[in-house]
Amino acid sequence: MTAFGIDLGTTNSCIACVDESGRPVVLPNAIGELTTPSVVYFDQREKVWIGRAAKDAALLAPDLAVQLVKRQMGLEGVGFTFHGTTYTPESISALVLKELTSAAQRHLGEPVRDVVITVPASFGVAERTATLLAGEIAGLNVLDILDEPNAAALSYRERAPVQGPRHLLVYDLGGGTFDTTVVRVDGDHVEVICTGGEPDLGGADWDARVRDFLLDTFTRQHPRLDPTADPHFMKELSIRAEQLKEELSTMTSRHRSLAFGGAVVPVELNRRQLEELTADLLDRTLARTEKTIAEARRKGVPDVDEVILVGGMTRMSAIMERLGKLVGKAPRRHEPDLAVARGAAMFALLKQMEQGAGQGRASRPAVRLAARMGLGEKQAEKLGSQRATAVLPRGFGTKVLDINDPLATTNPALARAYVVHLIPAGTALPADTGPVTFHTAIDNQPGIEVEVWEQASEESSEELADNKLIGRGKLRDLPPKLPKHTPVEITFFLSETGLLTVNAVEPASGRQVRFDLQIGGLDRSAVDLARTFVARHDTSS
Question: Is residue 168's pLDDT more than 90?
Answer without folding.
Answer: yes
